[in-house]
Amino acid sequence: MTARAGGSGCADAGLGGSIPPMRESRHRRAERWSFRRPVAGTLGAALLLLVAGGPAAAHGAAADPSPRERARQHYEVGAAAFEAGDYASALGDLDESYRLFPSLRTLYSLGLCQHALGSFGPALRSLEQYLREGGADAPPELRARAEELVAQMRAELGRLEIRVNVEGAEVRVDGEVVGRSPLAAPVEVGPGWHVVEARHESWDGPPQRVNVTAGAAVVVTLALAPEPPPEPPPPPVEPEPAPPASSGWGPPAGVPEQEWYGISESHYQQYVYATGRHQPLASWLLERNRENPDLDLGILVASTQGPAWLLAGMLTYFVYEDEWQAKGWDLPWVSFFEWLFGGGMTVAAILMAIVDALDLNTIPVAHPERLAAPPPSAPPPIDVSLGPTGLVLRF
Fold first, then answer.
1. How far apart are CA 263 and CA 284, in angstroms?
2. Residue 87 and residue 113 in contact, taking contact as beta carbons nearer than 8 Å
3. Which of 290, 283, 380, 303 lies closest to 345, judged by CA?
4. Which of 284, 264, 286 lies closest to 276 in space, CA to CA?
5. Is the dihedral of CA 192, 175, 180, 31 positive or negative?
6. How are beta strands 217-222 and 158-164 bridged, if at all?
7. What is the per-residue pLDDT across 284-320, written as a single tens digit (0 to 9) for each?
8. How far is C-alpha 222 from the chain's CA centre?
9. How wide is the angle at C-alpha 299 spanned by C-alphas 297 and 301, nearest 5°?
10. Which one of 60, 89, 154, 294 is least enclosed by Cβ atoms within 10 Å?
11. Cβ of 137: how many Cβ atoms within 10 Å?
């Protein structure tokens, strides 16, 4: 039923009355169920009327239930839930019954159940539809009760005048569909906050949250904008071609040697200025990055000879102390030169060790494995044989 929108709340059953039991009218037996006067007690009398068709009819419905028979079953469950005060469950079964077999009696019962739940907006629309479609065929007592409830709810409801800039958009209030734009009449809702939105297959817009007071009308304008076209898929990414295979030591054809070995621009310019490109880059890098045996030897010699000469100067000073004092020397010249030579070698050992630890002359290389020359290919096999002309070598 497209004329109802959701809501929640509670009201006592006395305001809405009881759901009428099922009964077929003489005037509309072929198209819809009629109405009986609401009962205040249990549904025992209604259930007796439901089975009045006889065992044969019940057996036929059980064998192959038609939509009308299934609608009757849902109505029974919904009526029992309503009488027990479980209005939420009753609403679900009554709604399903109306979907399977639309009936004015079911429509009236839906209005009572929605009123009992406090969903005055949907209840108002259900009862107004009942009054409009029932006309003179509606029982006077049910019609009077429906008109009374409609008048009461109109005084407690507010109205939403919903305007959409796109025709044919589906309009929803609190998630319930109330029609398509443009709406023929305002939408009645209960007081409080409500969410109003419009949906269209090619238009989009944000929902609006509005506050409605009892008896007031609120104008809601929904502006939809065309949805942007979907972005085209990104172009396929072509894989980068692999560098051509190298036939020997060095970069392949067409690949810069700076990129092949992976050195910075500043270090490559240093190579150019130092060698003028007369020396292969790989050879120059190997020289700069290899372990320096001369430096290691210098560190070893200086670190051992320096302290040794310092110690020799001290021994000379103390061993020949009497002689140089007898000659009146303040400092023996032999010890002085031994100390001078030993101190210089010690300082040199320290400086060379610092240079070796800091690797000041090394060049960072991103691909050091490419500096090594490839292993030589295996020589072709040599075939030695003795022929009529002598010894034959084939290779």
1. 12
2. yes
3. 303
4. 284
5. negative
6. parallel
7. 676 666 555 566 677 777 788 888 888 888 887 777 7
8. 29
9. 70
10. 294
11. 14
Three-state helix/strand/coil letters over 269-336: HHHHHHHCCCCCHHHHHHHHHCCCHHHHHHHHHHHHHHHHHHHHHHHHHHHCHHHHHHCCCCCCHHHH
d(CA 226, CA 207): 15
CB-count exposure of residue 197 (10 Å: 0-12, 13-18, 19+): buried
Q: What angle do CA 25, 151, 23 make, to 5 degrees?
A: 15
Residues of the chain with pLDDT under 50: 1-16, 23-62, 247
Q: Please give the Cα distance from 96 to 77 (Å, whole number).
A: 11
**Residue 248 dihedral angles phi and psi, to the nearest 5°:** -165, -155
pTM greater than 0.70 (yes/no): no
Assign residue 250 a region (left: φ > 0; alpha: ψ between -120 and 50; beta: otherwise). Answer: left
For every residue of 120-177, DSSP letters joined together read HHHHHHHHHHHHHHHGGGS-HHHHHHHHHHHHHHHHH-EEEEEEESSTTPEEEETTEE
- CA 323 – CA 306 distance, rounded (Å): 26
| Angstrom distance (rounded) from CA 256 to CA 264 | 12
Q: Tokens representing 192?
A: 């409080």
* Assigned token pair, 217: 């009308």
